[in-house]
Structure formats: structure tokens, C-alpha cells
């Protein structure tokens, strides 16, 4: 969203108009301004704390408590100051703040109107249980639907994510956490109207804050793992100048294939890690072999073929990688059993490894290296399809073709620039574009032994 397309800006403008409509007061509704100010201040403080903890999210219990306590137009005011003043890391900062504020105003305004229409305000004032759960549940559902719809729209327009995938994924993830926040908000609203007053309502937030802090710690731990992964990949890129940037692109291609196969978001992320880390074992291979321009001897080839096992040893203790560890070990296996390190065949090869194998070969063929020119994307796909069934899983190859039909692949020069890549004119390219120097274990298709 750093460079925002015109259609996304128009979409944000439409949401801002919808927010202004939500802020228009209903006839006959009295606004308790002290409650609006207190809830808005509380929400703003929560947003600042979240930014300090570097927690990606927002504190919905306060917003939903406002939806249960206040008239719709007053409830829609609660998120406005906090969203407009919350810290933003990415540009354009102003547009992002406006988008977030307008989105939350619409979500809270719609939820409050649904709660009002179901008679929820009277039920909250009278502490009428379990009837109060019905309008509260309807309001939470409306909040989830609007939040998912708005987020899906901006993803589709600004990030070009397919609409059905964006909305389905967002809505499936939102009901459970928002329902928990909704219950906390309902408890706040009921206690707010009790003899104990707003102070008792604020006590509801204490256990939520503790759980929120624990969740933030979990995210920090994940971020530390990812930083470690990036450091390992950078070390590989420095050591093997031929493949600089290769790991990140293999991770991207693996993610595209996984999404096309209908895998859930958590597994897609694991496959991305698998692609990024697939060559980490090259840290255990002598640099002179990785950078050798000529043919490899049988002994040198056996040394390089140990890199999947080296890589598996390096990552097997990182528990959150899951099946990515198997991909690191088996991404050079082939369906016909001629691969390494164990010569597995067909379904014996883990699915994650079959995904990474296709992504690895595709990027190798479409990247310019010092020993040969890049092959066009269409030609690389034809080569993969020619080798499907013997070397590659046909499902993975077909999934990659479908994914590339909807987005543009940007191959890059991955050779070490200091070595002056030898890009020959047409007709004098030297070795086949699908291969490293003859005898290299990363070769593809006809050039493979």
C-alpha cells in the first residue's frame, strides 16, 4: 500500500463517506458525552500501548463496549481519536490513519445500529441475561462481517489479492477473537450500568491486557525466529554468489504454489519458510565448490549433495518450522527415485519438498547467472512440464502455471556482480539455459544426470 493505486484511494474515499454517515446522529438519541470521552481516551491509550509493545492489532473490547452502551453515532466516535493519532510505520502515513479511522467508525457504527435494532441497549441497562446475549451476538457478527469486507476490499484493490480469497480468509479468522472481545465488551457494558459504575467496568480489561501482553510476547518470539532465518539466508547469499536473492524468490514461488493448492494461511507461511531455507545447508559446503565455474568431479558432486542433510541438521531444532524441515531435507528428491539424498520416489517425497523442488527449479531457470542467461518464464514452465512425472510433481507444476497466469514474475540477476557475468549474444549462449555447469547437482531437465 506504499504506492497506493487510484482505485484504492477511491475506495478509501467511499469508506470515509460511509463513516461520515455513521457519525450522523439518530433522531431523539441523547449522547452521554462524558462516556464517549472516557471510552475514546481509554481506546487511545490502548492503541498507544499496543504500538509500544509492537503488537499488530487493535483493542476491540472498548469499541464493542461503546457499541453496547452508546447510541450508534456516539459509539462511532469512540475509535476516531485513537485511530487518527496511532503510530504508523509504513507510508503513506496520513492515508493509512484515515483508512483505519474510517474503517473502525463504520464497523462500530454498524455494530451499534444492529445492537440498537435488536433492543440490546435496554437489555444491557436491565442486565437481562441471557437475552442480552442475542443482540450482542448480532452486533459482534455484524462487526466481523463489515471488518472483513472492508479489509478484503483494500487487499483486493491495493495489494491485488483475489477478492474471494481475501474475504474468505479474513472472515474465517476473525469471528473467534472478536467474539471473545465482544464478551469482554458486554461485561464492561453491564458493569458500567451496575451500582459499581465505570471503575468496575475497567477491571474487566485487566485479564484481557495480561493475555494481550502474553500474545505480544509470542509475536516477539516469532519475530526473533524470523530474524534468525534472515541471517542464515544472508549468510548463504554471501557464500554462494551465484544464487544471491534466490532463496527469497523460491520462498515467494513456494507460497504461490501453496496458495494455488488451497492450503490454509498457516501452512502457506510454513512453505514460504521452506523455500527461503531450502539451501541453508550450503553453509556447510566449501565455497570453492559453490563458486566453481567448470564441471564438478564425482567427489565434489558428492560433497555438494550433502547440503540438504546439513540444512536439516541446522533447522531441525526450530519447532515452528514444522514440515519446512522435511522440505529442506528432500527438495532434491525426484519422483522417479533418481534424486538425493535418499532416492525417494513418488508419494514417499513429502508434499512440502515437492512444492519447493518446483519453485527452486523455476527460479534457477528464470534467473541470470554468470554461466548462462535466464530462460523466459514461458520456456521455464515448458521445461518443468516436460520433466513433470519423472522429476517434478505435475500438480505442483500446474499450480505454478495457474498462479503465474494471475501475476507477473520478476526474475533477477543473481550472480555476484563483482564477477562480471558473461551474458553472451543470442546464438552463443553456451550451456543450456536450464542447467548449471555440466555435472552440477542443481541442474534441471536434460542437463541433469
Short description:
The chain is an all-alpha fold and 449 residues long. The protein folds into two domains: 6-203, no CATH class; 219-447, Orthogonal Bundle (Hypothetical protein af1432). Helix content is 63%, strand content 0%.
If you had to describe this structure to a student in words, what would you say it looks like?
This protein is an all-alpha fold and 449 residues long. The chain folds into 2 domains: 6-203, no CATH class; 219-447, Hypothetical protein af1432 (Orthogonal Bundle), CATH 1.10.3210. 63% of the residues lie in helices and 0% in strands. It has helices at residues 6-22, 33-52, 60-69, 72-77, 79-85, 93-117, 120-125, 133-158, 163-173, 175-192, 197-203, 205-239, 246-260, 265-277, 287-290, 298-304, 307-315, 324-330, 351-366, 377-387, 394-404. Helix 8 packs across helix 10. The chain is elongated. The two termini are 46 Å apart. Mean pLDDT is 80; it is low at 413-441 and 445-449. Keywords: Membrane, Transmembrane, Transmembrane helix. It holds the Pfam family HD_5. It comes from Streptomyces luteolifulvus. Residues 416-449 are annotated as: Disordered. The chain crosses the membrane at residues 6-26, 59-86, 98-118, 138-158, 170-192, 198-216.
Topology:
Blueprint lengths: L5 H17 L10 H20 L7 H10 L2 H6 L1 H7 L7 H25 L2 H6 L7 H26 L4 H11 L1 H18 L4 H7 L1 H35 L6 H15 L4 H13 L9 H4 L7 H7 L2 H9 L8 H7 L20 H16 L10 H11 L6 H11 L45
Helix pairs in contact: 1-6, 1-8, 2-3, 2-5, 3-6, 3-10, 5-6, 6-8, 8-9, 8-10, 10-11, 13-14, 13-19, 13-21, 14-18, 17-18, 18-19, 19-20
Amino acid at each position: 500500500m506504499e504506492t497506493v493505486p487510484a482505485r484504492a484511494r477511491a475506495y478509501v474515499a467511499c469508506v470515509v463517506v460511509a463513516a461520515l454517515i455513521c457519525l450522523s446522529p439518530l433522531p431523539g438519541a441523547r449522547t452521554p458525552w462524558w462516556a464517549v470521552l472516557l471510552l475514546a481516551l481509554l481506546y487511545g491509550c490502548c492503541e498507544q500501548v499496543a504500538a509500544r509493545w509492537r503488537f499488530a492489532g487493535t483493542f476491540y473490547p472498548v469499541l464493542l463496549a461503546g457499541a453496547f452502551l452508546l447510541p450508534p453515532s456516539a459509539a462511532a466516535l469512540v475509535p476516531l481519536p485513537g485511530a487518527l493519532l496511532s503510530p504508523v510505520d509504513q507510508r503513506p502515513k496520513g492515508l493509512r490513519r484515515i483508512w483505519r479511522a474510517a474503517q473502525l467508525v463504520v464497523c462500530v457504527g454498524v455494530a451499534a445500529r444492529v445492537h440498537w435494532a435488536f433492543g440490546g441497549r435496554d437489555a444491557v441497562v436491565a442486565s437481562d441475561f441471557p437475552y442480552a446475549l442475542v443482540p450482542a451476538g448480532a452486533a459482534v457478527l455484524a462487526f466481523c462481517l463489515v471488518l472483513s469486507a472492508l479489509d478484503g476490499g483494500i487487499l483486493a484493490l491495493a495489494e491485488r489479492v483475489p477478492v474471494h480469497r481475501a474475504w474468505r480468509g479474513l472472515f474465517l479468522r476473525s469471528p473467534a477473537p472478536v467474539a471473545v472481545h465482544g464478551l469482554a465488551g458486554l461485561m464492561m457494558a453491564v458493569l458500567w450500568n451496575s451500582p459499581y459504575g465505570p471503575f468496575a467496568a475497567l477491571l474487566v480489561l485487566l485479564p484481557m491486557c495480561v493475555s494481550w501482553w502474553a500474545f505480544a510476547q509470542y509475536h516477539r518470539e516469532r519475530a526473533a525466529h524470523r530474524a534468525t532465518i534472515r541471517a542464515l539466508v544472508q549468510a548463504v547469499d554471501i557464500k554462494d554468489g551465484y544464487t544471491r536473492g534466490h532463496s527469497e524468490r523460491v520462498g515467494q514461488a513456494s507460497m504461490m504454489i501453496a496458495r494455488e493448492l488451497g492450503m490454509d494461511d498457516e501452512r502457506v507461511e510454513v512453505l514460504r519458510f521452506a523455500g527461503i531455507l531450502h539451501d541453508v545447508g550450503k553453509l556447510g559446503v566449501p565455497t570453492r565448490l559453490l563458486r566453481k565455474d567448470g564441471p564438478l568431479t564425482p567427489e565434489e558432486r558428492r560433497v555438494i549433495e550433502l547440503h540438504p542433510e546439513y540444512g536439516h541438521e541446522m533447522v531441525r531444532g526450530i519447532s515452528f518450522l514444522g514440515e519446512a524441515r522435511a522440505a529442506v531435507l528432500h527438495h532434491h528428491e525426484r519422483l522417479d527415485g533418481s534424486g538425493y539424498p535418499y532416492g525417494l520416489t513418488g508419494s514417499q517425497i513429502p508434499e512440502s519438498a515437492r512444492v519447493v523442488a518446483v519453485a527452486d527449479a523455476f527460479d534457477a531457470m528464470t534467473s541470470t547467472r554468470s554461466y548462462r542467461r535466464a530462460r523466459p518464464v514461458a520456456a521455464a514452465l515448458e521445461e518443468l512440464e516436460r520433466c513433470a512425472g519423472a522429476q517434478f510433481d505435475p500438480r505442483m507444476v500446474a499450480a505454478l502455471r495457474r498462479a503465474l497466469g494471475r501475476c507477473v514474475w520478476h526474475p533477477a540477476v543473481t550472480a555476484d556482480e563483482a564477477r562480471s557475468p558473461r551474458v553472451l549474444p543470442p546464438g552463443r549462449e553456451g550451456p543450456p539455459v536450464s542447467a548449471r555447469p555440466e555435472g552440477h547437482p542443481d541442474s534441471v531437465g536434460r542437463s541433469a544426470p
